[in-house]
Amino acid sequence: MRHTRRTRRMPAPGRKVQLATAAMLLVATTVAACGDGQDDGATASAPKAPATIPELTKDPLTLSFIWFDWPPAHALEDFANAEYKKERPNATIKVNTVPNANWHDAMFTQFAARKTDFDIAILDSQHIGEAVTNGNILDITDFVKNNIEVEAYNPYLLAAYGQFPQAETGKRDENASLYGLPLLGDTWTMIYRKDLIGDKPPQTWDQMISVAERCQADNPGVSGLAFHQANGSDAAAVTYNTVNGVYGGNLWDAKTRKIEGVLNDAAGQEAMDVLVNKMKPLTAKGSGNWFIDEVNAAVAQGKACIAFNWIAASGGLLDPKQSMLGTTREQILDKLGFATLPSQKTNLVPLGGMGMHVSAYSAKDNQAEALNFMKWFERADIQKKWAAAGGVPSRTDALESPEFLNAGPFNQVYTDSVPRMRDMWNVPEYARLVDIENTNVNAALNGAKKPKEALDDIAKEQQSVLDSSSRKGGGGL
Amino acid sequence: MAVSVDEAVSAGPVRDHTPPARRRGGRGRSVLEVALLAVLAVVMLFPVLWMIQTSIKENRDVYAIPAKFFDFQVTMDHFKDVFVASGGGRSALSVSFLNSVVVAGASTVLATVLGVPAAWAYSRFAVKAKKDQLFFILSTRFMPPVVVVIPIFLMYRQVGLIDTKLGLILIYAAYNLPFTIWMMKGFVDEVPAEYEDAAMLDGYTRLQAFRRFTLPLLVPGIAATAVFALIFSWNEFVFAIFLTSSDDVRTAPPAIAGLIGGTTVDWGLVAAASVVFALPVLVFAYLVRKHLVAGVTLGAVRR
Amino acid sequence: MSAPLPLATDHPGQVAPAAPPAPGRSRRLSDRGLAAAFISPALLLLLAMSVFPLLWALYLSFTDYSATRGGPAHFVGFGNYTAILASAQVHQRALTTLIYVVGAVGLQTVLGFTIAYLISRRTHGRGLLTTLFLVPMMLSPVVVGLFWRFMLDAQFGVINSMLGSLGLGQVEWLTRQRTALISLIVVDTWQWTPFIMLIALAGLTAVPKYLYEAASIDRASEWFRFRTITLPLVWPLLLIAVLFRAIEAFRLFDLVYILTNGGPGVSTETLSFHVYKVAFLGFNTGTASAYGILMVLVVIVLTQLYLRYLNKLKED
């Protein structure tokens, strides 16, 4: 304050200017926001893709995907650039990757921006509802009718990655609209130490728990179980949902949109009790924030008797550089076995994996290329090549082909699991539902909440999210 | 006659003149104090040393239980992985480093170009409600980024700045501007206004007097200020993670954060990337050590 | 903000270097023009990137607008605000944030001041010591968060490994309600103790030596000297440092995002983290804006406090 020492209060003219500026800005904002609103109204439902692929461009074109950063994303980019280029030399494939924790946000913030740097979004099956309701992805029902051999698939696989509203578990509603096609199938595999518990995997969930218990007691330093418990992504939620399914529970009643009283019924409570009181004590100390990579690390370090992980994320387990179990792939495979999940009251397993969905905001040429790519990708021969390249195909013929079954020790597990799959809700409110479930299951697993209290809270809060459309303000809390 | 700005504000704590009077009281106490200080220093520095060590360990040793402090195989592979992709060519991480350089550099230049003249004007002229303006400017810097990012996101979506370097540059410039103005105003205050007055008596205009006489004296101050702005935008994470998504735009902090959460975590790589990322900041911080107090308080406190 | 509006139409440029300065009134005018020309670009950028977004958020906070769902925004009056203020979820986050801010800032003040005091009593190696202590503060929160997450890992983290060598059991640092919040506080303290130290050191070195000398003639006890000379002189500066840290800690997001992701359960979710979830998980932009505005109000109060003390310090 070198020159004049001014009074602290702003002089009156200054204030007026300030107020006027504020008012002007406010008006501008309102106008901008309203303009935005009208814009949105016009595109409230998903735009339709053409039934036949439009003429493709001859100019160089980059077809961009968005996925999270993991080996299948790199495999897809390499595979597509090697194989798709043979058909379409002018096309280059780019798979943009974001951190897993940021995957949903990265896609939906771009959707919200009405401008995407990707042409094909690789959405989780449960993201479809949100994307369709907001009109972010193309309706490809007619395209599929004309271009895809739907009978070549297990119907539920087509439904899970494409259909909205959601199909009943195990089925497909042929009159419902489709918004995507399967890209990478996935489910949980049970990974067990053959050298510690024997070659034969446990068949029931109860058996699995007692085998793990014995193994842990016999092998100090090795924990009985390792599974996803983290509160990010969908980690802890999938774990609970899996146990819930196996013990005969239901996540919701889709017809009446009821969660309260369905999720936390007797079967649901039993599942929570098994998870927290029987399974959790068999896990390593401090494993309460484990997700895919920590479970893999525990297996590779030889610290777990039985582990559960996504098949598509299990490839690294066979890498001798990362493993303490052996110095060659064969040595590791002598110790590690892969099996379908044990069953109990039901034999349900979680549906994982992702589909391909065309961004409503990408250029016409790119959308045409995207449709062409999808048609190409779902061809029988390409599906087999994708399998050989390390991907998980969806066509039944590819799933039963030697190309797939011989490509990895866990691939048979996937093929056997397909008829047993169940998915979560794919409603527009998915992101919030899964967050509620994740945080509460995580809290129960880590002793921050009693299991019953956690489950009741999940049911109550999820129900209020589903019912919240009529509320005045405060949505999303 | 010329006063070095450097010297004028060098009362920073790093210089060790004015040692406080040593008490005769006790050698024993002094030893105790040194010991305590040593322990605290070790505690504060251990994580950094551990990070450096992890970056040169093989992954097997990284996971070793009990932790290996000395007997491990030294490897430089992690550093190679930071820059070179597994299949050869540039890694995504190195691209993000480059993006960070561009974004931090450009935003710093912008903040400096806008901030220095403003600071000079605030220092020299009787601006209306100067104090209010200055305090208003500083308070914009205190807004929670998570809150600001929501409307910024909506705004950027209207003008197509989502997931662009320009978008990041603008928001970082706005984020650094309050700091630049406050910090630079301090430096300008140190340069006597009489120089300019004298020059103007010689027939120079005010602007010329500023450019020919004051500006050269401000260069060290501008350098210091710019370095701090550079550090702030280099380290920034929240805007980066919400406003960018593609590899071509993503800066290093979200890219490093993205190293975990795949299917395996390569802690050696995380450590190496962190070391490479932190190194320029530490070098820069060392260069401007005299101005640290002003720098870290956004130019508000100058001693 | 209220920069004089007649913008620089008169450019006193380099055209006539030798021209004698016009006397009196017109020169003052050109000064004003110059001031406006120099200040307004900066203010414009701040208006566009800080004020305008906040006003926009203010407008949205009275609506049920969603950034993704689209459709026109409906006015809901103070609905968002009352819902937030009444929400038990929000209260829980507020409490977490409060514990975190008080814990972290308190701890780093004590530690930072202690270190500064010890350093100020050394004659040799002060420069080196200070520089070493400052390293954590310069690191990106991303690096700090990731690395502490690695070190605090219950299974193979170095902290538990060292505890193990000392014969102590493993601690679940990041996965128990209490320890997770403590871990967050510890990590923040590790990073920001140097900040307090730096400011306190600046205050301590500025205490005039003659005051101590006078006191030592009076044979005053060390504690007495500390209480009556050192502390009162350093206090104003320290207070500013503390307030500064409190504001920063209140805004904390990145460390939570990386270190605990808010877990276990939601026990380390701060207000910032909760705003993020409301804004980006459900895209309830209206609610998130109201939530944000409420946070901004808290920040404004803290900032006012900070600025007032800053002002006082400057005037002394």
Automatic annotation (TrEMBL), chain B:
UniProt-annotated location(s): Cell membrane
Recorded superkingdom: Bacteria
Main localization of the protein described in the UniProt heading: membrane
Alphabetized UniProt keyword annotations: Cell membrane, Membrane, Transmembrane, Transmembrane helix, Transport
InterPro entries with a match to the protein in the record: BP-dep_ABC_trans_perm, MetI-like, MetI-like_sf
Keyword Membrane: yes
PROSITE patterns for this protein: ABC_TM1 (PS50928)
Disordered: annotated span: 1-25
Residue span, ABC transmembrane type-1 domain: 97-288
Keyword Membrane (UniProt): yes
Residue intervals passing through the bilayer: 31-52, 97-122, 134-154, 166-184, 213-234, 267-288
Bilayer disposition of the protein: Multi-pass membrane protein
Pfam (any one): BPD_transp_1
The family this protein is said to belong to: Belongs to the binding-protein-dependent transport system permease family.
Protein name as it appears in the record: ABC transporter permease
Species for this entry: Micromonospora qiuiae
Organism placement in taxonomy: Bacteria, Bacillati, Actinomycetota, Actinomycetes, Micromonosporales
Automatic annotation (TrEMBL), chain C:
CDD domains from the UniProt entry: TM_PBP2
Subcellular location field: Cell membrane; Membrane
Entry keywords, A to Z: Membrane, Transmembrane, Transmembrane helix, Transport
TM spans (from-to): 34-59, 98-119, 131-151, 192-212, 224-247, 288-307
Annotated region described as Disordered, given as residue ranges: 1-27
PANTHER family in alphabetical order: GLUCOSE IMPORT SYSTEM PERMEASE PROTEIN GLCT, TREHALOSE TRANSPORT SYSTEM PERMEASE PROTEIN SUGA
Identification of the protein by name: ABC transporter permease
